[in-house]
Amino acid sequence: MFKLIISVLLKAIAFAFIFNLISGLHFTGSFWTAICYSIFFSIVAFVVRIALMASIAGFGIATAGAGAVLLIFLYLIGFWIIPAIQLEVLAWWFPKHFTVDGFGGAILGGLVLLVINAIAGGYTRKS
Question: What is the pTM of this model?
């Protein structure tokens, strides 16, 4: 639970302050709005992660393991692009406070979110 709270707060800081420094990402709103966006982003990320793992498992079972090797390889190569797509979707769903001008900005924002997840995960493992 502590990891989730730290992760949501760090993502809210990213939405409220860091994303405005990245070219192509624009967030307008209060810090409470940023917290709501980070909670929604965390829920979407959780659902996407479960869907990806379920599809990899299902495809692996259907192809007797041969297809899962390919999907896991593609996931390891493209794991950094998933948060960028999630940011694009978030901006498409809620354009009032968050906009993404191009995919380059979304990729940089996704990389920021990956770093935040790594920091939150590492911080809570040590404590």
Answer: 0.75
In sequence order, the 6+-apart residues with CB closer than 8 A to the CB of 61 are none
- Structure tokens, 103: 């995919």
pLDDT digits (tens, 9 = 90+) for 112-124: 888 887 777 665 4
Let me know if 98 is exposed, middle or buried by CB neighbors in 10 A (0-12, 13-18, 19+).
Answer: buried
Which ranges of 14-102 would DSSP assign to H, the alpha helix? Answer: 31-62, 66-78, 81-93
Tell me: the pLDDT tens digits for 7-36?
Answer: 888 888 888 888 888 888 888 888 998 898
Domain ranges of the chain: 2-44+81-126
Distance, in Å, from the CA atom of 4 to the CA atom of 124, rounded to the nearest integer, reads: 10
